[in-house]
Amino acid sequence: MHVNNFLNKTHDEAIHFLDVIMDQNRFEVTVKQKPVDLTFTEFKLLEYLICHADRAVSREELLKEIWAIPESIETRATDDMVKRLRKKLKAANADAMIVTVRGFGFMIAKNHHPKLADAQIIVPAHELHKTIDYICSNAQNNHSAATIKIKKLNDQYIIDILA
């Protein structure tokens, strides 16, 4: 997926992703030019996903960046917030949707589940094997093939998935 086709930033500090427009100065969101009522945290979560629309974002990263919660704490905060945000985007008939990357986290995408192709995932070292297993089983279930490139960066791994 080429994010530049969907994501644009204007001079007035508005972020556009498909038909979702986020005014960062006013903390307002519109879909198809109609306002969508979001809490401050919902706004920050949607903003983070849109700004990182070129990759899947882990639950741990969201906990750290949105809630400032250490990775070691178990919580359903991200899942609960994503569920509420999905409902609001669906009610607004948005072209954008939040998809789950099973066992990892979330990503924002055009209104269909993205294929695991031409994507980049950043995972902590302890999640590497589980993530690779998921990618391989997904490719096998879809009768497709992909090239996986893995790079180590500090205590994380960057996984590039190429069709």
From TrEMBL:
Pfam families reported in the protein's UniProt record: Trans_reg_C (PF00486)
SUPFAM superfamilies: C-terminal effector domain of the bipartite response regulators (SSF46894)
Keywords, in A-Z order: DNA-binding, Phosphoprotein, Transcription, Transcription regulation, Two-component regulatory system
Residue span(s) of domain OmpR/PhoB-type: 12-110
Organism domain of life: Bacteria
DNA-binding region: 12-110
Protein name: Winged helix-turn-helix transcriptional regulator
Species this chain originates from: Fusibacter paucivorans
Taxonomic lineage from the root: Bacteria, Bacillati, Bacillota, Clostridia, Eubacteriales
